[in-house]
Amino acid sequence: MMPKRHDFSEQGTTLVYLAVILVVLVGFVALAVDGGFLYGQRQKMQNAADAAAMAGAERLCRGMGTAVTSTATRYATLNGADDVSVRVDGWRVRVTARRTVETYFAKMLGISQVTIGAHAEATCSEAASACRVWPLGLNRRDWEGQAEHSCGDLLYIWTGGPPIDAPDCDVYDCDLDGDGDDDIFIAEGPQNRPWLDFTRQVSPEFPDSCSQPGIGAAELRCEILHGSGARIETPACVDRGFGSPASVGNAINARRGDRVAIALYDGFCPRRPGPGGRPYRVTAFGCVTVEGWVRDLRLTCRTTPREGGCGCGRRPPRCRGPLHIQAIAVRIPCNPMACFTSCGTLSGNPPRAGGVNAVGLTR
C-alpha cells in the first residue's frame, strides 16, 4: 500500500486566498464602520453650517452687519467645526464649516484622518409670513408711498370714533406737516376701522393665547401688548375686527418706542359668514415705531381744494369747523432692517424701508 502524500502547494495557495479575503473583509468593515461615522460627522457639519448661516443672516437682517462674521463663526464652532469661512454677498451669508476627524478601521488601510466639509447659504429678505403682528391692517399702496416719501415723519392711524365717521381729507387738512402728503392712514371698508381678527390664522404650531372670536377689547389689548402668536402667511384672508379704540389707549402707550409689525392689504377677499364683512387680502407687512395714543388730534378745514380734486365724482361737503379724532401716532423707520420676524418665511424681495424681514436657508 502506497503511503498518503500531502500537497503542501495547495495548502499554501489556500492560505494566500484566506489572507486576501481577510483583507477584503477588513476593508468592508472599515467602509461600514467608518462610512457610517463619517456620514454622521457630515450631517453634523451641515447642521453647523446651517446654524451659522442663519445666525449670520439674522444679524444682517437686524442691521448688525459688522457682527455677521463673528456670529456665524461662533455658531459653527459651537456646533463642532474646526475651520470656518464666512462670506457676505449682498443680503446672503455663505458659510463653509470643516472638521478633521480620526478614523477607526480605515487606519489599517493607511487612512488615519479625514476632513469633512459642508456649505450653507442663508438670505435676509422681506417676509412672506410673520408672527407677533399687531392687529392693524392698512392699505399697502398708501403705506408703500408713505414709506418711500415720508419715512421718519410722524404719521397717524385713525382707529375709529369718536367721531363715528372717518375724517374726509377732501374737507379737512390731513397734511399736518405741510410736506404735500396726507399724514393720516384711514382703512377701507365699513366704518373704516383698521382692526384685524387673526382667529382663523391660529394653528397648533402657532397658537395665540390672546385669540377670541370677534376680537373684543380684552383680545385687542392682549395683542397690542404682545402681538398675535398666529403666523400670517401671505396672501391671507384676514377678518376685520371692531375693537373699541378707547379701551386700548393704555396698551398702546405701553408699547411706546417699540417697533412692531402690522398687516398690509391690497384688496378684499370674498365675503364669509360673520359680522366682519369681507376680509382684507393681506399681502405684505409693514414696520412702525409706536409713538403713542393720541386722544385728541385736531384737524382744521382745508383752505384750498385738494389738488386734482377728490376724483370721487362728487362735491366735498362743507367743512363746519375743526374735527377732533383719536389715532395711533407712529413713524415708519427709514432703516430697512428695522423690523424682523423670527418665524417668517422669505418673499425673495430685498429689505426696504417700512418692511418686515425674515431669514431662511436658500442653499
Descriptive tags:
single chain; 363 residues; alpha+beta; 2 domains; eight-stranded mixed sheet; 5 helices; 15 strands
Description:
It is a single chain. 38% of the residues are buried. The protein folds into two domains: 9-123, no CATH class; 129-361, no CATH class. It is 25% helix and 29% strand. Helix 1 (8-61) packs antiparallel against helix 2 (68-78). The strands form three sheets. Strands 5, 6, 7, 8, 10, 11, 12 and 13 form an eight-stranded mixed beta sheet that branches. The chain has five helices and 15 strands.
Report the structural category: alpha+beta
Question: How many helical stretches?
Answer: 5
Taking all Cα atoms into account, the compactness measure Rg is: 32 Å
Strand content: 25-35%
Which H/E pattern describes the elements? HHEEEEEHEEEHEEHEEEEE
User: Which runs of at least 5 residues are low in confidence (pLDDT < 50)?
Assistant: none
- General shape: elongated
Largest sheet: 8 strands, mixed
Number of strands: 15
Helix content: 25-40%
Distance between the termini: 82 Å
How many domain modules?
2
Please give the structural blueprint.
Elements: H1 8-61, H2 68-78, E1 83-89, E2 92-102, E3 113-126, E4 129-130, E5 133-139, H3 140-149, E6 154-158, E7 184-185, E8 196-197, H4 217-226, E9 232-233, E10 236-240, H5 249-254, E11 259-268, E12 280-299, E13 323-331, E14 339-340, E15 356-361
Parallel strand pairs: 5-11, 6-7, 14-15
Antiparallel strand pairs: 1-2, 2-3, 3-15, 4-9, 6-13, 8-10, 10-12, 11-12, 12-13
